[in-house]
Amino acid sequence: MYEAVEPYAHGLLDVGDGQLVYWETCGNPEGKPAVVLHGGPGSGATPGWRRYFDPARYRVVLFDQRGCGRSRPHAADPAVDLSVNTTDHLIADIERLRAHLGVDRWLVLGASWGSTLGLAYAQRHPERVSELVLFSVVTTSRREVEWITREMGRIFPAEWVRFRDGVPPADRDGDLADAYARLLADADPAVRERAARDWCAWEDTHVGTVPGHRPDPRYADPVFRMAFARLVTHYWRHAAFLPDGQLLGEAGRLAGIPGVLLHGRLDISSPPEIPWRLAQAWPDARLELLDAAGHGAGHGIGARVLAALDGFADRR
Questions:
Q1: Which of 59, 192, 240, 265 has its Cα between 20 and 30 A from that of 79?
Q2: Residue 136 annotated to the active site
């Protein structure tokens, strides 16, 4: 990866609804524009994202999506209204940020939830996207949410039972994302905290399908844990606030936009069928499946992201 660089500009953009979105730019102010869409929802844009880009050739924009990271208000506060935090809101925020920074078109890099958001943004505004580089690709469909919250119990049965039993008995056969979202909105802080811990423990489990997987240290932070759990359950219970199947069904809107899809064959919680089906519907996309990789940037995924970005760096 490239050397660590610091932002040359940053700020808080007022996007309406009482929301201030943190943004930063780094690299070459005259370089090829690119925007990073982090995962989660709720993970925030950490400094490591900057290192995928050649700082001499890219003008890189990172931002924390509504409710997380350095954006305000923060979803860890139970009083923060999530009704103004939807995919449509995030797409509008990306457009406001693009206009604020004077960018005409930019490359979109997204991972996990960021791949869902990247696809939704590119389908809504294809004229604003020069290329897409997506890894750990998901579309956050109802089937995918059901797979992660229920069917992955076939891979981790004991851990899943503990996850399921974190909700009241009457809710255990229903929508678990919805049940956890209700617990995370409970008036009792102890109920909210237990739900956040149980949710994040399952998150750490279902992505752990490769040897050497280590727990995510961010879940030890109670502020991160609460915001992450609230935002993920909020988006999952609504299947990303998108008509089910839209991102695959409208992949034709991406025609003419070069794309690279990177995915691990061992990413069982987000099965490789997802990017494979997307690549069938999007002829301008190249799918690379890495045999030893799971969910995330490990086991060779990060190196392929770097190569894809280097390959697009001089394309205008």
A1: 240
A2: no
